[in-house]
């Protein structure tokens, strides 16, 4: 979740730096993964007015525009569709250089001269996604620098764990900070809406468990009212595109309070009743996310007289969505069961911001009314609210039962290993919404993760001064047994694979006697007898099947465990499983599925680093029979091998070449998401036998985007070449270097810094 710091400061009195705030949050268990600066990332962009727009004579999808930045009209060819004559837009003059190295030049596009470029919010670094040009307010003066209109703002990206959905909002983070000693600001609650039931509209709930509370407010709004500029900028900083006032307001309240909502165009609905029900067989919804969703009987939907208009808590439908011309709207703010939303969202692969929040559960039931009033208030402040017509209600807010959890302070100190400042910690508990009840603490309804005393101990530990927590070396951890080598090797392998995004699987050693060639146990009898596993692959297969059935696409799994070997002896084995895509889809590449090299490459790396890793017993794709047994349809590759006791590798004699070596340093720039394992793989796939080594000697990121574009990484890579039989020439080394650069460009989107 992206959190603009100035927005957070409206809710709490924080006067320190972003780094200090990030440290405080991270130490308390809420990790801040990055701090970045927003605002216009391209220098020299100015505002300009589209004086004239006409079709391109030689291209149906292009237009020819005459634009004026206050210094005279220029002709620009544009491929966007959302602009008209009179619009104020960002304009890049010839000579403007973008962070990716693109330089704007005077050129002919399909025979028409173009003297610049009109820009979208994405091209300026103001948004992660954009459709069409960035349209500025009509009162914006011409020739003004976009850097002055969109100055940089500090944004923290916060990693919200699944057990803390209460932190997925500005208000939630401010509440957390108040418990950490940051004073909260007094926030004036939005005014209550006029009482009264809306005439002509009603709500019916058929499944009260999946939807305990549903509110539908009817509003008449003015057309042609745009979102305030401050709201657009704040949404952009948080990673949201501006989609018109009605949608922007709901997104704003989603980020501010954490409560999702949705708006319908009342004129585009059939009948006068909205029904919350389970989907019927064969029903389909064309969603606002661009997907055409086939619905299942377990999916909770919102339906009008004709059919489904929204998937509850997940996504709205195109046919009932609000338009710029919408006058009468219906505002939905409701409570949906977390399990229902999570199941539907995963099955449809529709991970919307609303679905993420509902699926985690733990939303405060009071947020329904608060968010509804806040949306009405923002529409009124923007000058768009013409009339509030009333509200239709169904169900009622449900406060989940929260059991008071006993807390024994003396035992807590013994377990944690340090003394507790009871008075201060009790105040912090109160700030977090806990209530003391006779030696126990009752958590608020949004803290569903607190159910046992150990959960309270976790709260005490993270709220305490981290410097007071003693660092205790467990003398038992590294005993002097003969197993120490194997233990150290296992820890090293786990850490190595975790760094490469592999997840560990822990499966039971006892399986059905016929599963995975299990060794039958003599103490077991009857048809349901169990056995001791002879392979780790069945357990990995079952884990993969569970993840795939729950929406998992790209899997990297491993297991380290013992199996029954020949003669009844135990063997320590390592097994790997990969499925899905090699890397996320990129616009320059098609989908790249995992293959033999995906497993072989990582196994070879393991063999190089750990002496106990031998050649795998199996390195192959799962057969159709094996996949059918565990319910997998996707392509899956596996490897399994025996781990020997880790001993130092014997010294090997390597003849030293009498010929000189050649060293080439590459200063590369590539997307931040690319790992060095991918870089090394791309190099070694085309490298000659004369390449002795490949090392990284420098890594650099520029949060300001001056030397390296934001979202990119500068990587210094050293290549060493040497022949055992001759002196290498510059020509052949340069040829190898060009091949390596081509491989890096196609596989990792890497470029030399000198060509940016």
Describe the protein in words.
The chain is α+β, with helices and mostly antiparallel strands. It folds into six domains: 2-37 and 154-179, Phenylalanyl-tRNA Synthetase, Chain B, domain 1; 46-149, OB fold (Dihydrolipoamide Acetyltransferase, E2P), CATH 2.40.50.140; 202-395, 3-Layer(bba) Sandwich (Phenylalanyl-tRNA Synthetase, Chain B, domain 3), CATH 3.50.40; 405-462, Phenylalanyl-tRNA Synthetase, Chain B, domain 1, CATH 3.30.56; 484-642, Bira Bifunctional Protein, Domain 2 (BirA Bifunctional Protein, domain 2); 662-755, Ferrodoxin-fold anticodon-binding domain (Alpha-Beta Plaits, 2-Layer Sandwich). A hairpin with a 2-residue loop joins strand 7 (107-109) and strand 8 (112-114). The longest helix is centred in the C-terminal third of the chain and has 19 residues, at 730-748.
Concise overview:
With 756 residues, this protein is of the alpha+beta class. It has 6 domains: 2-37 and 154-179, Phenylalanyl-tRNA Synthetase, Chain B, domain 1; 46-149, OB fold (Dihydrolipoamide Acetyltransferase, E2P); 202-395, Phenylalanyl-tRNA Synthetase, Chain B, domain 3 (3-Layer(bba) Sandwich); 405-462, Phenylalanyl-tRNA Synthetase, Chain B, domain 1 (2-Layer Sandwich); 484-642, Bira Bifunctional Protein, Domain 2 (BirA Bifunctional Protein, domain 2, 2-Layer Sandwich), CATH 3.30.930; 662-755, Alpha-Beta Plaits (2-Layer Sandwich), CATH 3.30.70.
């Amino acid at each position: 979740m992206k959190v603009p710091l100035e927005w957070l400061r409206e809710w709490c009195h924080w006067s320190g730096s972003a780094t200090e705030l990030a440290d405080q949050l991270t130490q308390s268990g809420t990790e801040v993964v990055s701090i970045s600066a927003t605002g216009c990332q391209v220098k020299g962009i100015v505002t300009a007015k589209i004086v004239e727009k006409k079709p391109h004579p030689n291209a149906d999808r292009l237009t020819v525009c005459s634009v004026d930045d206050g210094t005279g009209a220029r002709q620009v060819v544009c491929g966007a569709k959302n602009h008209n004559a009179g619009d104020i837009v960002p304009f890049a003059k010839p000579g403007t250089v973008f962070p990716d190295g693109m330089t704007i030049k005077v050129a002919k596009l399909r025979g028409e001269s173009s003297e610049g470029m009109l820009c979208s919010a994405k091209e300026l670094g103001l948004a992660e996604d954009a459709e069409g040009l960035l349209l500025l307010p009509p009162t914006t003066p011409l020739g003004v620098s976009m850097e002055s209109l969109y100055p940089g703002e500090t944004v923290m990206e916060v990693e919200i764990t699944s057990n803390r959905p209460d932190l997925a909002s500005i208000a939630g983070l401010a509440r957390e900070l108040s418990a950490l000693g940051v004073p909260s600001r007094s926030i004036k609650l939005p005014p209550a809406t006029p009482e009264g039931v809306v005439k002509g509209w009603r709500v019916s709930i058929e499944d009260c468990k999946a939807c305990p509370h549903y509110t539908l407010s009817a509003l008449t709004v003015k057309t042609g009212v745009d979102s305030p500029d401050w709201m657009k900028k704040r949404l952009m900083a948080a990673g949201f595109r501006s989609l018109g006032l009605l949608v922007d307001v709901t997104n704003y309240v989603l980020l501010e309070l954490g409560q999702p909502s949705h708006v319908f165009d009342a004129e585009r609905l059939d009948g006068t009743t909205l029904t919350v029900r389970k989907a019927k067989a064969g029903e389909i919804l064309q969603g606002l996310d661009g997907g055409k969703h086939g619905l299942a009987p377990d999916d909770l939907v919102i339906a009008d007289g004709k059919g489904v208009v929204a998937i509850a808590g997940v996504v709205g439908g195109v046919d009932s969505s609000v338009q710029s011309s919408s006058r009468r709207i219906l505002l939905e703010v409701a409570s949906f069961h977390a399990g229902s939303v999570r199941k539907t969202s995963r099955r449809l692969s529709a991970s919307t911001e609303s679905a993420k929040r509902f699926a985690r559960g733990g939303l405060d039931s009071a947020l329904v009314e608060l968010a509804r009033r806040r949306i009405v208030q923002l529409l009124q402040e923007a000058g768009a609210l013409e009339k509030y017509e009333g509200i239709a209600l169904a169900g009622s807010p449900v406060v989940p039962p929260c059991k008071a959890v006993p807390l024994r302070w003396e035992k807590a100190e013994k377990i944690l290993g340090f003394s507790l400042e009871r008075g201060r910690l009790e105040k912090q508990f109160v700030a977090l919404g806990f209530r003391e009840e006779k030696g126990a603490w009752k958590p608020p309804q949004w803290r569903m993760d607190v159910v046992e005393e150990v959960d309270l101990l976790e709260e005490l530990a993270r709220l305490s001064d981290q410097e007071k927590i003693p660092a205790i070396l467990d003398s038992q951890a590294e005993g002097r047994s003969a197993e120490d080598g194997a233990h150290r090797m296992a820890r090293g392998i786990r850490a190595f694979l975790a760094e490469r995004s592999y997840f560990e699987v822990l499966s039971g050693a006892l399986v059905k006697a016929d599963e995975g060639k299990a060794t039958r146990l003599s103490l077991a009898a009857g048809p349901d007898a169990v056995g001791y596993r002879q392979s780790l692959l069945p357990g990995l297969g079952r884990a993969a099947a569970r993840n795939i059935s729950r929406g998992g696409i790209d899997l990297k799994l491993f297991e380290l465990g013992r199996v029954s070997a020949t003669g009844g002896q135990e063997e320590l084995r390592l097994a790997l499983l990969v499925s899905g895509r090699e890397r996320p889809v990129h616009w320059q590449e098609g989908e790249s599925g995992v293959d033999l090299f995906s497993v072989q490459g990582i196994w070879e790396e393991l063999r190089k680093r750990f002496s106990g890793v031998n050649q795998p017993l199996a390195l192959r794709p799962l057969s159709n029979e094996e996949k059918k047994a565990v319910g997998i349809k996707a392509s899956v590759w596996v490897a399994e091998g025996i781990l020997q006791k880790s001993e130092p590798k014997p010294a090997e004699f390597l003849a030293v070449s009498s010929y000189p070596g050649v060293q080439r340093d590459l200063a590369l720039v590539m997307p931040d998401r690319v790992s060095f394992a991918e870089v090394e793989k791309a190099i070694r796939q085309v490298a000659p036998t004369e390449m002795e080594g490949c090392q990284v000697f420098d890594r650099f990121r520029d949060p300001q985007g001056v030397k390296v574009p934001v979202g990119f990484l500068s990587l210094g890579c050293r290549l060493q070449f040497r022949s055992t039989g001759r002196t290498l020439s510059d020509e052949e080394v340069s040829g190898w270097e060009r091949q390596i650069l081509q491989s890096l460009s196609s596989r990792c989107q890497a470029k030399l810094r000198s060509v940016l």
